[in-house]
Amino acid sequence: MALSGIQIYKLLPQTNCKDCGFPTCLAFAMKLAAKQVELSACPHVSEEAKAQLAESAAPPVRLITLKSNGHEIKVGNEVVLFRHEKTFYNKPGLFIRVRDDQPADAVKAAVAAVDAYTVGYVGMDLGLDGFAVESVSGDAATFAAAIGAVRTVSGRPLVLISKDAQVMAAGLGAVDGEQPLIYGADGDNWEAMADLAKQHKAPLAVIGSSLDELAELTEKIKGKGIEDMVLDPGGRDLSTSLVQATQIRRLSIKKNFRPLGYPIIAFPCDAGDPARESVLAAQAIAKYAGFVVLGDFSPEKVYPLLVLRENIYTDPQKPIQVQPGLYEINDPKPESPLLVTTNFSITYFSVANEVEATGIPTWLMVADAEGMSVLTAWAAGKFDAERIAKSVKTFNVEDKVSQKRIVLPGHVAVLSGELEEELPGWEVKVGPREAVDLPAFMKQVL
Amino acid sequence: MAVEIPKDTWTGEVHAVTLGAIEADGGTRTKTVTVGGEKTLPFMHFEGETPNAPVVAVEIKDRRPDDWSPLLEEAWGSAMDDPAAWAKAAEEAGADLIQLSLSLTGSDGNPTTPQAAVDAVKAVLGATGLPLLVFGPGQADLDNELLVPVAEATKGERLVLGLCEDKNYRTIAATAMANDHLVIARTAMDVNLAKQLNILISDMGLPLERILMDPTTGALGYGIEYGYSVMERLRMAALQGDAMTQLPMIVTIGIETWKTKEGKVGDGVPEAWGDWKERAINWETLTAVTLIESAADIVVLRHPESVKRVKAAVTDLMTV
């Protein structure tokens, strides 16, 4: 049962030594009660207190790690139901399914394409996390061979799929020393699967057709000494999967219900239709999945999903920003044009990418708009003529450009009069509203 | 092991808002559409009622637009030259509602006239029996100049007039009130701004049952997370009993999606973006379904294939 902050405080050293990073033991206790810190942040807690606190200090959704040579993915450890309450921490892993009845060459080609895939988004390189290798043949050697084929082209973490313990044992043998996810244990095979999980120190996915059945199974498996589990509650349609994922997250966060305090694995790959698969995967990303298994790989399918994952897992308290300043794009000269935008990173990268693609040498002045987009910043009074003029001075723009002409984003065309007053001797031009229209504008107008 | 499922108990509910009026009620629509009425968070059927499914509005324009993606031109073809034909095509594509956006200028380059706006609206009303939403071009003065005569010429239709914003809501709300129409209150991704505008409009005497709110969203990759969270917060406030948030929500996903580079452009983009058409449709569909799951009641879309996918998802989500 979860302890209150006061109950936890009584078990702490009560010395207010601040070694945990909090000003008092009480403050630390409150954070522990809210599951926002780990007990290990306190170096002085007694072994006895540790044992008592272990249950209370554990995160409501257990942290699960998959490992392979040089790769690692962590999911779980979430503390809220809604991202605005704090943030979502560990992005769900996106895995591509391969089957052991496919020819080895086909497996290798598919895996190599996924392994090499990266796509740029606001200055980051996004990619997929690993592979779910499924035994369709039911044959141990075939399964091991398929896993071997994957490993010849990619070292990324794996989910191994078979309900046959002998087949699974062969699969685990093919990646000895790694920590793949074993999928999985159900009412029939759980003892043998738990043994394998223990032997290989690998997390175990537990499959149930209802939350009742799942909770019963995880308790039995825990009784065999397995701590790291992942849940498949069985829903494969949008309605059932949303309700199940929500119920599991609520039970973990609000009730600290341990038998279901594990990440969820979702299988949009079972949708049977690529359009429906994308929608199921998007739901899994936003609504609480820890692992998402896709049926096959295509860039037009995974790029939107990777972007959605970034967006949903952005910390709502900290909008992603870039440093305000005068940016040089395509090696500008003093006579090159000058554009201005805000320091919201999506805005900055949209503009910078377009300008870069034109090849036109350009100065891009990024004003400090507290990380907001042009329209939002303008509405909030964080991107006005005064601020833009101030940026021109702060970044010594007049020393760098010979042509006193500044291009405003079209959304803030209303600022041009004021800006002319703030910047005497400057010409103010209004650019397009959207970054995507910049190349045409720059070629025609500048 | 019997797991006791925690159920949220909510004291508030969202107003049900009916769009369009049939002949017996003073309009000419062959059907009406009711949205809202939720007593729980989206699709939590086990703890409360979601009496009305989210619906899809398809955006059309009064004339062929100059700046729409070639993919949309390919999808709608020559129907784009005639708002009546376009409305029919949208209905055939599965639209629950038609959203007509009036252009800033006619094809001759001159500002759209009130007469042209009225003609376009009447043509659309004549071509389809679905409820209609009419948006001005998005410039306060012209919006008022066009929407007032449109509202007067269609009295009793229960059209939805958009968009009321904090700097320009009085004229549109007043004409909606006088002519039995509805309005959309749009604010910039902020719970308090949304409440404030709803208060201002309802203080004028327009009942809450005739107001939809648009909390604004960005497309996937361009700020969807702001729309997503503000909608979750607004819906929770509504269910907790905050009267000024208990309005159905509408988001204009089509325009947001199709102005992004991912939607608009096929050439000169990274190879890692994949097939243009499928990517663009995914972009619109995923933006829509993600926001429906965070409480949108009406999504406005542009591509017929997205309409099909989003409607299929809604059917799935509404299955108990």
Which features would summarize this protein structure in a list?
heterodimer; A: 446 residues; alpha/beta; 3-methyladenine DNA Glycosylase II, Chain A, domain 3; TIM Barrel; Rossmann fold; 3 domains; 8-stranded parallel beta sheet; 5-stranded mixed beta sheet; 17 helices; 17 strands; 17% strand; B: 320 residues; two-stranded antiparallel sheet; 11 helices; 10 strands; 39% helix; globular
Shape assignment of chain B: globular
Query: C-alpha Rg of chain A, in Å?
Result: 27 Å
Question: How many angstroms separate the termini of chain B?
Answer: 24 Å
Instruction: State the secondary-structure class of chain B.
Output: alpha/beta
Strand content of chain A: 15-25%
Number of domains of chain A: 3
- Helical fraction of chain B: 25-40%
Helical run tally of chain A? 17
Approximate strand percentage of chain B = 5-15%
Biggest beta-sheet profile of chain B: 8 strands, parallel
How many domain regions of chain B? 1
CATH superfamily of the largest domain in chain A: Dihydropteroate synthase-like
Helix run count of chain B: 11
Secondary structure tally: strands of chain A: 17
CATH architecture of chain B: Alpha-Beta Barrel
